[in-house]
Automatic annotation (TrEMBL):
Keywords of the record: Cell inner membrane, Cell membrane, Membrane, Transport
InterPro entries recorded: NrtA/CpmA_ABC-bd_dom (IPR044527)
One GO CC annotation: endomembrane system
Keyword Cell inner membrane: yes
Protein known as: Nitrate transporter
Pfam annotation, one family: NMT1_2
Source organism phylogeny: Bacteria, Pseudomonadati, Pseudomonadota, Alphaproteobacteria, Rhodobacterales
Domain of life where this protein originates: Bacteria
Subcellular location: Endomembrane system
Amino acid sequence: MSLTEIRCGFIPLVDAAPLVVMRELGFAEEEGLDLRLLRQPSWSTLRDMLALGHLEAAHMLSPVPVAMSLGLGGLPTRMDALMVLSVNGNTIGVSPELATRMRAAGWAGGFADPVGTGNHLIRAAGARLRVGVPFPFSMHAELLYHWLGSLGLSAPGGLDVRTIPPPRMGEAMAADEIDAFCVGEPWGSAAVERGAAELVLPGSAIWSFAPEKVLAAGHDWVEANPGTVGRLMRAAWRAQAWLGDGQNIDMASDLLARTDYLDIPDEIIDRALMGRIQTRQGGAEVKVPRFLCFHEAGAAFPWRSQAALMGRAIARRSGLEQDAAMATARAAFRSDLYRANLAPIGVDLPGASEKLEGALSRPTPVASSRGGLTLGPDSFFDGWIFDPHT
């Protein structure tokens, strides 16, 4: 059988695992796809490669298809988010010197206290906090702005935000280019290993179920290749289901550690996959429930309410009309294709494509096509709830 070649770009992060698994374990080939995974040095390079047609698909920051569809950030191109690849998975770290000042002022050093940690961070930072994020349009930026903004800091205006590729985050901290960062794993843990940072908070402590990466593709290519898109989505979903089985963590770590992918020791990769984070060099591991999710609680579904949330936030900062931006954002998250392509293989689909974001404080059964779907928790640390229709 001849295979259809798909060039798919990725950034070396643990949450690229669905793509690595779908290639290495044969899920893509079973769907008739020759999946070529192409590692990229930065999110801007990956975005441009996709926009220019050098790639058919990409591992992408969830706000990027929204921003691109709004005509922001480089090449204005309509981009589709076919499905969510991962939920959560980020860490916030500070320099050892800043952590020492926070402790001297009374910070207890816990890893699950967004209010106490945030207030101590704001006070200890003194002048404008220099913070590294992997890309301006990213969940990292959204989480930081919501967290620090809710605690009284003007964000992003009160921050010195610097864009740094994920693998360089620890190096930038060691070179005193930044005081803090928000980055995906394994690069927070790698910074801890080199003694350049202390991790102070998981991203999930800010928003407990934040869509982190999506499987993205150009809108025109998606519309011109419906069969290939369906096969790609089914292969990705099967890889996510495989990753959702805890018995497969060791094999997933081994795959990701290869030089073609993350090229980093598997014991560091394990921390994110197992949700056991070492926050300080030589310190004990801290268990973080749902630190990184691929499959549970309908993680792969591209909720249009999540797209609307991101669209509104980006519009506010960019001076765009908010209702129009939210409508464009909704269209970029292709819940229609998710339903059409995954229903035939028996995936349990939610009864709606939008919901209140942040309203679930505990696992909650919801209406679904097969009657077995449970969502949540998805709450924000400050109790905020986003209603996409108000």
